[in-house]
Every structure is written in structure tokens, then in C-alpha cells.
Amino acid sequence: MSENPKIRHILHSGYFHPVLRSLQTPNVSISSHNLMFPIFIGNNEKPAEVKSMPGVVQYGVSNIEECLKPLMSKGLKSVLLFGVEHEIPKDGIGSHADSPRNPVVLAVHTLRKHFPELLIACDVCLCAYTNHGHCGIVDNDGVINNEASIKRIAQVALAYAKAGAHIVAPSDMMDGRIGAIKKTLIDAGLGNRVGVLSYAAKFASGFYGPFRDVTKSAPIFSDRKCYQLPPGSKGLASRAALRDVTEGCDMLMVKPGLAYLDIVKQTKDAHPEYPLFVYQVSGEYAMLYHAAKAGAIDLRSVLEEVLLSMRRAGADCIITYFTPVILDWLQLRSKY
């Protein structure tokens, strides 16, 4: 998609919320506004522990308010929502990704009502809702149809925006999806009310296993190496970030985190004017959790070291499943 100066120079969508304004004034410490809590949300009546990620909970629409109240009192500033739905049949276009029964759509309404100060981001992808497990629409020959995919992804992003999301975060890595989403938001009168967080440098990584187990989103054929980035490529990561900046994103992301700190620095150095997020993904969480459980490391000292390395490399916000634990540490530190 060609550059659209009008889209690229919409600035209000990057700082309309107080938390977003905090991310525009970076330093290298760890504060609550530097953390975003990724949440699995389904229609389960009670919170359920995620088996592949001990200590992580899948919330339900009916209990998310009660579950987040303690975290809000400890300083939680932002969340990233992922829908988990196994009861409704999946299809080739991910029809349930933006249906009125989608748990993300329902949860956004609840969160906006009860926590008006919370910054709410919604992951935008089709993989958890398609019967093939890929992040876009697939042609009969098994190849991604990019144009059909970005049209569908923009529809899903708009549904989340209309539900009340402050940020839509496309994670599919299709070419042109940022421009398609921005145009859709502008056409709906939401261009300056909803920010776009681009998974700009998302790599085809082995660290996603526990997440795919939770969401049942692993591809049933082939893999995602044709649209997620090769782990060894710095050049493609640079081009992907530039592509999304050119199309008008408000924020950038590198995913995973620890194994890609050189890409974090590269991206921040190239685009210092954009808030940069890094996702400490499910495999990174599990690796640290199990190492600490086995007594091989001290979780607090090692996790703090990892978080500071991400900030030092250029991350303004760290998306981490450890957010509840870190908030406890920050609260304890503030007492002394």
C-alpha cells in the first residue's frame, strides 16, 4: 500500500490517553506505565489456571471485573486482550473474531464501564478463530490471500474499536494491514480516538508454544514462516518496521523479547519518535517460571535484570505475564 501522508500525520491517536502520553516520555526505570498485562479472556464462569503457563489465569467475561480490581489498586495501567473461544465452530474467515458474542468485544464493554482509566488494547488476528489456524484467509492452494486477509483484519479491528478499545494491535504480519486498519478507522470517524500498535517485527519463533496451547491456534498445516519474520533476519525486521511506520501506525512492537534485544535497539534507533513495545512471550514466561520453580534462579533478581535489559535496549513498554508479580514488587518498593 502506497504512503498516505494524511494517515501518517495523524498524531492524536498516539497520545489521547494519559498512559500513552507517559510512553512518549521514556527513561530506563521500571514503572507501572511501562507494563502491559496480556490477558486471556473467554466465557468461562470462573477464572481457570492455564496448564501450560502455571500462575497465569484465563479470565471470563463475567469475572474479569472482580479479578482485575486488586491489580488496579496496585497500579495496573494497561491490558492486552486475547480471546479464547472453543465452543463456537471455527471457519475459514474467522467469523467469530468480531461477532457480538466474542469474549473480547464483551470484555471491552465491561472494562470501559468499570475501569475508565485503564488503557485497553486488543490483539487483532484470525488464527484463534479460523479452522486452519493461520493468521489470514487461505486460498484453496494453501497460500495466504493477502488482500482478502487485510480486509477481514480491518473489519475485526473496527469491531474492537467500536466496542471501546483504545488500541488495536494487529499481530498477523500481513503486508498492508496497518494502512487498511487506519483507513477503516478514519472512515468510521475513529482516526483520532483509537491507536494502532503494530506487531512490526514479529518473528517465526519457537517461544509461542504455550500461547498456542491456550488459544488452540496452531496451524493445522504448514507453518507461519511465510509471513512471520525469519529469526536471523535484521534487514526484514527493519523493512517491516519502516513499512508500518509509513502506513501510519502509532506504536511499534518487537516480539519475542529476550532473544531479539538487538532488534529492539535497531527499531528504537531507527524510529525514536515512536513508543516501542516488546512482548515477553509465553515461552519466555514459562522458561523463567520453571527455572525459578526448580531452584535454578532467583525469579525476582533475574526477571528484574531481564526487564531492565529490555528497557535499556529501547523498550518503552513491556508486555509481560509477570505483570501482577511486578506490580507487587513496585508497590513494596514504594513503601520504603
Instruction: Give the beta-strand count.
Output: 10
Strand content: 15-25%
Largest sheet: 8 strands, parallel, barrel
C-alpha termini separation: 53 Å
Overall 3D shape: globular
- Average pLDDT, all residues: 91
Helix fraction, binned, reads 25-40%
Tell me about this structure.
It contains twelve helices and ten strands. It is an alpha/beta fold. An eight-stranded parallel β-barrel has the order 1-4-5-6-7-8-9-10, surrounded by seven helices. α5 (146-163) packs across α6 (177-187) and α9 packs parallel to α11 (299-313).
SSE map:
Blueprint lengths: L4 H4 L9 H6 L11 E8 L5 E2 L7 E4 L3 H10 L4 E6 L19 H12 L4 E6 L21 H18 L3 E4 L6 H11 L7 E8 L6 H7 L19 H12 L4 E5 L5 H10 L5 E5 L1 H12 L5 H15 L3 E4 L2 H12 L2
Parallel strand pairs: 1-3, 1-4, 1-10, 4-5, 5-6, 6-7, 7-8, 8-9, 9-10
Antiparallel strand pairs: 2-3
Helix pairs in contact: 5-6, 9-11
Quick synopsis:
Strand 6, helix 6 and strand 7 form a beta-alpha-beta unit.
List keywords for this structure.
8-stranded parallel β-barrel, 10 strands, 336 residues
